[in-house]
Amino acid sequence: MKLWKSTDTVGSLRGQFLRWLLIPLLLLVALNAYSVYRNALDAADLAYDRSLLASARALSERVSIVDGKLVANVPYVALDSFETDTLGRLYYKVTGINGEFISGYEDLPTLPKNVPRSQIYPALVHFFGADYQGQEVRIAALHQPVYDDRMRGIALIEVGETMDARRGLSRTILIDTLVRQAALVLAVALMVWVAVRFVLHPLMQLKSNVENREPTDLSDFDPELVHKEIRPLIIAMNGYMARLQTLISGQKRFIADASHQLRTPLTVLKTQAELALRENDTEAMRHIVQSIAATTDSTVHLANRLLTLARTGHGAAEGAMARVSLRDIARQVCTELALPAVKKQIDLSLEAEQEVTVIGHELLLHEMLSNLLDNAIRYTPQQGHITVRAYAAAGQAVLEIEDDGPGIPPAEQERVFAPFYRAGTAVESNPGGAGLGLSIVKDIALLHNGNISLSNVVAGQCLRVVICFPVD
């Protein structure tokens, strides 16, 4: 019988308890019943063999030598008791010293030569089975010494009994054993069922608590209400709900921030569109349309950053974690953003001589470096310098970007990682920024177990961003 497989649907806990307890118990009960039955049969055989031996001894006492001949003086009453028993039939045979028939049933089977003597009784007795008159019989063959002044020798007294009594007793023992063992199994099954029902009561109570909770209630369950073995599961559930609560709170905060940030440019677009509809001067309308285009570009940039931030917050990316090359990512990003750097006459250089790999999402790492380099290009003045580095140091993979921009004051270097926060120097250099770039960078770095740090190379300016990733 198949009890359980890892690919099966997990069924009833009560059913599994009963199967795992009762099936081994049934096997043990079957073995015990067989053992008890065999022991009882052995005891019954021993008792019946002793009775046969007693009958043979009683008969041997009536064997004597008269006038030089061996005779068996068996009265009619004794003969009748030998021939018929209450539960079966008895047969006897007396054989003389020289193998001659003396008395009883002459065709009763004679003792075979290979039957060993019984070691249980202090007598020269042999027990064996045979077929007689179409019936199975058990025979006790007793060697009885006889002697007088003229002769001496050993007579053979055989007493046979049909197996009816033994078989009846065997059936009685078997039925009694099975009834007792079945009653034991039923009692154990009932106790297990009651015990499991009692033991599962805390889980049923927990189930009721879960069903009765409001959808917005993500508070912890009390681990002390369940058994010690179940508490790790409850603690894990509480941890999961805490993470879920953090995710929901982040989503709510993101939706609130996004709606707040998008409301302003959308309002400006609406206002500019209304002005364009009222304006009849072609030149003035051209300026308004240019403003609408600039506002649209800024809004699209903000929307793209918001989508990237949302995807980063969920840890989603195309493809699973894989080994990726930071040098290849840095080379690709520098190539993609080379044109904006050339337009500002910025000297963009890549220093990545050695191969550096990490386990991560290639798309998100690309997005992270793109944000950093895009910020560096935006805030670096004309004819400035930007250096991108990828290298290994102290057992870590390092990405580093250094620019000639205004830098970030030390007091604000931690705050700039918050969504929509912008340092004062950034607002002065680029009033149209979204304030999401460094927040996206930090989230992606944390997703890859990275550590990000900011510093100013020169006092108050020339920002350096260093991101260190563990190397497995």
From TrEMBL:
Residues 257-472 form the Histidine kinase domain. It is found in: Membrane. Its main location: membrane. SMART domains: HATPase_c (SM00387), HisKA (SM00388). Keywords: Kinase, Membrane, Phosphoprotein, Transferase, Transmembrane, Transmembrane helix. The keyword Manganese does not apply. One of its GO terms (cellular component) is plasma membrane. Signal peptide: none annotated. CDD domains: HATPase (cd00075), HisKA (cd00082). The chain crosses the membrane at residues 20-37, 178-200. This is histidine kinase. It comes from Undibacterium terreum.
